[in-house]
Amino acid sequence: MHASLDGFVAGPNGELNWAKVDEEIFDFVASMTDQADTALYGRVTYEMMQGYWPTADAQPNASKHDKAHAHWYRHVSKVVLSKTLNQNEHENTTVISQNLADNILTIKNQAGKNILIFGSPSASHALLAEDLIDAFWIFVNPVLLGSGTPLFKNIHSLTQLNLIESKTFACGVIALHYEKKTK
Fold it and tell me: Structural domains in the chain?
């Protein structure tokens, strides 16, 4: 998830035009998607992704990243947290509208690769409230927003993290990988 240095994932009006994304970051994220077979989204982010990625590689100006991510997106299992989407309308997609903890734990306990959350601050906040996130990749952008959607919300108890790795990109973004400390 992209975040400002002062801890926001979207500006006051939901804007993301401050988040820096370039080929170096795209290549890095591709190494993460290679290790995942499930993508988790909130409804808003899912609808945005569905509007672009299924056919992004067919566009005449599709980049290397567009082609690779579109292929991954079409084949990855998608999980959407939503109270308004209909389960039967979306191919290769599971809609979770209730029993969040039980449903997510079932998915987490299945054999397979990682589950990645792309953006989706509301979904992330719901998962945090249920203590369902094991690791964080935070792409800290060199910008201060002053207000907006917070990165962390609904934290009900002390959560200690271990820094696993960090990566600094030429554009000034720093990716931080944290895992929850085991109790």
Answer: 2-180 (3.40.430.10)
List Cβ neighbours of 110 (8 Å cut-off, separation of 6 or more).
none
Instruction: State the DSSP code for 77.
Output: E
Task: Answer left, alpha or beta for residue 152, where phi above 0 means left and psi between -120 and 50 means alpha.
Answer: beta
- Residue in 21, 52, 183, 42 with CA at minimum distance from that of residue 121: 42
∠ CA 44-77-62, rounded to 5°: 70
Say how many C-beta atoms besides its own lie within 10 A of residue 105's C-beta: 12
Provide the token pair at 115: 């589950």
Return the axis-axis angle of helices 64-75 and 23-33, rounded to nearest 10°: 20
Q: What does pTM read for this prediction?
A: 0.89
**Each residue's pLDDT tens digit in the chain (183 positions)?**
999 999 999 999 989 999 999 999 999 999 999 999 999 999 999 999 999 999 999 999 999 999 999 999 999 999 999 999 877 777 889 999 999 999 999 999 999 999 999 888 889 999 998 989 999 999 999 999 999 999 998 787 888 999 999 999 999 999 999 999 876
Report residue 146 as tokens.
Answer: 């002053």
Residue 66 and residue 23: Cα distance in Å, rounded?
Answer: 11
